[in-house]
Specification:
Strand order of the largest sheet of chain A: 2-1-3-4-5-11
CATH topology of one domain in chain A: Rossmann fold
CATH superfamily of one domain in chain A: Response regulator
CATH class of one domain in chain A: Alpha Beta
Largest sheet of chain A: 6 strands, parallel
Oligomer: homodimer
CATH architecture of one domain in chain A: 3-Layer(aba) Sandwich
Shape of chain A: elongated
Order of helices and strands of chain A: HHHHEHEHEHEEHEHEHEHEEHEE
Radius of gyration of chain A: 26 Å
Distance between the termini of chain A: 64 Å
Largest interface: A-B, 40 and 40 residues
DNA sequence: TAAGGAAATCTAATCGATTAGATTGATTTT
DNA sequence: AAAATCAATCTAATCGATTAGATTTCCTTA
């Protein structure tokens, strides 16, 4: 491997001079030419690891998310990626799978050095302890999508409450009074707020919230499919006419369950989702658009600012992005299935 | 920041001893106890960057892919992630977006140090030059999904030729003789082989390959949608009865185009896709399953083996995984739209 | 022309770990 | 009891860069 010493020797200058050339410090044109020539001839590239050790800047950011396989996250990751790249940062992705270990892997990585900042897209109230220990480190952290409301943190989220409210309003405006709700991951602020929005709309319309019409969800297709199947069977004489799913992934599960139960959408059961995932448009699913890419972008922007003017300002920023209702056919008049 | 020196001082031993404890070298129980106590009390974590500089091992692998937002890749990435994690490696993701710069970013990262190996999931024949310069470095490289057939490399791919053949056979077995083909990214081995498989099946059945029924595709929904729309309009008196799309993303575009053109699937036009992306099952799309997660896993396994027994064997491995036809309704008898 | 000052360049310390090779001390062998 | 052996521990070099602070060079000014 060719090092800065080799360049110095070849060019007949000191390593300091080579370093100055590399870092655009004042150097005479003559020296600079010699150094550049040597660099070119030996095909030299500075060792980034040595540089990081000395300078204590890694230009590396970790993005922690539950599961890249969940189609919600790639867009968010892309937003992060793009901004990171624009600013010369490398991105490391850590999947926690919403499991036990959780953040601990990430926390360890951070403590080992090598990471200048973190974006957490998987925070849950139950991770408080680990999150707090993270916040004690000097490493800047920004929460994206999911936040922890009981803690003072920087965050970029979408307005889940009003999205939930609007979705429920839409169902109600279409004449539905018997509305079931598929709940998302328990303990995530995202699903909590979507549910609150739903409940507020129901209350404002003076409609009943029936506990047996709350399908305990997680995040996945299967849980939702099974839950809805059960809902449709068990309450055969007194069925909801609409289902509000707090995520598209689960809404698709609900659609398939309705269909497999031999019923029609939206005639028998209307369905509204949440997220506006890519293929839902082909499935005709009415849903709430969430600016996932933008969440990623802005979170990364905020983080990089924090990294750059470290300890400048100690106030916290909480950006909340708007959502919008995307009306398609699963709660309209045209039959989908 | 607390360093190994602080621990040595606190424990009253040399830094070497601390290092030995850290690295499980023989140390007396007495010393070990003292050191562990100091580590615990000062809450010390070794600096990974310093370690990397000295040992020249980074335990970091870069995964280069065109676009994490394309639903094909997250599963592959997850496969890589999981195996990397099992083996204590960190994963960096680089999106090239199939653009100009291409691999150059990755190549640079590699030359800077900090990366022990590369998985390329975005190789194309036209990147030969950059790929060759990569292969000249001592860094192991494994090709996943896309490979470069004219070069001796390690790779894990799916059997795109026989998948394409089987898909076309299925259409033909269902009585179709007029079959259009939506082509994937030009210059990618994946789409080349899928097309070859298609052509072989057509030839074997003595069916004509009409050039005007080849829709020039890229990878995306829109190009396909527009291409199919045009196909259906222009050849109104002599239309294909079936479309073989070389990717699901484009197949969905084709489905929507057929629908928007006021025709029915499969009655007027049958459609078969390729990839078996998640939501295609809800869309009833008949397709070819590609073991994406498994491709990622095996590629990472192969890479880590190469990293570990560097320079042991110099022969190349090319693993080709099986695909399987997933029959749903877009070429069957039951109407989808 | 000598002194003073600014700019360019160099020497050597440093970042925080690992690891040869030297040293120490305990144990075994004769 | 001295010599030989071996394991545990230490000292100091090292990885490849950056950067204070020292030194040199060159130009300005009196």
């Amino acid at each position: 491997m060719v090092t800065i010493k080799d360049i110095a020797r070849k060019a007949g200058v000191s390593v300091a001079t080579v370093s100055y050339v590399l870092n655009d410090r004042p150097v005479s044109d003559e020296m600079k030419a010699k150094v550049l020539k040597a660099i070119d001839e030996l095909n030299y590239v500075p060792n980034e690891i040595a540089r990081r050790l000395r300078v204590k800047k890694n230009h590396t950011i970790a993005l922690v998310l539950p599961d890249i396989t969940n189609p919600f996250y790639p867009d968010l990751a892309k937003g992060c990626q793009d901004v990171a790249k624009e600013n010369g940062f490398t991105l490391i992705m850590i999947n926690t799978e919403d499991k036990e270990e959780q953040l601990s892997g990430a926390v360890n990585q951070v403590r080992q050095g090598g990471i200048d900042g973190l974006i957490l897209a998987n925070a849950m109230e139950k991770d408080m302890a680990e999150v707090e220990s993270l916040l004690e480190t000097p490493i800047p952290v920004v929460f994206a999508h999911r936040s922890i409301e009981s803690l003072a943190v920087d965050s970029v989220t979408a307005d889940n409450y009003s999205g939930g409210y609007e979705a429920a309003r839409h169902l109600i405006a279409n004449g539905h009074e018997k509305i079931a709700f598929i709940e998302g991951l328990l303990g995530s602020t995202v699903s909590i707020n979507r549910k609150k929005g739903f409940e507020a709309a129901m209350n404002d319309a003076e409609l009943p919230l029936r506990p047996d019409w709350i399908v305990e969800g997680k995040t996945d297709y299967d849980t939702s499919y099974n839950g809805v199947m059960q809902l449709l069977n068990s309450s055969s004489n007194d069925r909801p006419t609409a289902i509000f799913s707090s995520s598209d992934l689960m809404a698709v599960g609900a659609m398939d369950a309705v269909k497999d139960a031999g019923m029609f959408i939206p005639d028998d059961v209307a369905i509204i989702g949440y997220d506006d995932l890519f293929m839902t448009s082909s499935l005709q699913l009415t849903t709430v658009h969430v600016p996932r890419y933008e969440i990623g972008r802005q979170a990364m922007q905020m983080l990089i600012e924090k990294i750059n003017d470290k300890d400048t300002n100690e106030s916290f920023q909480n950006i909340v992005l708007d959502t919008s209702l995307i009306v398609r056919n699963t709660c309209g008049s045209q039959r989908v299935y």
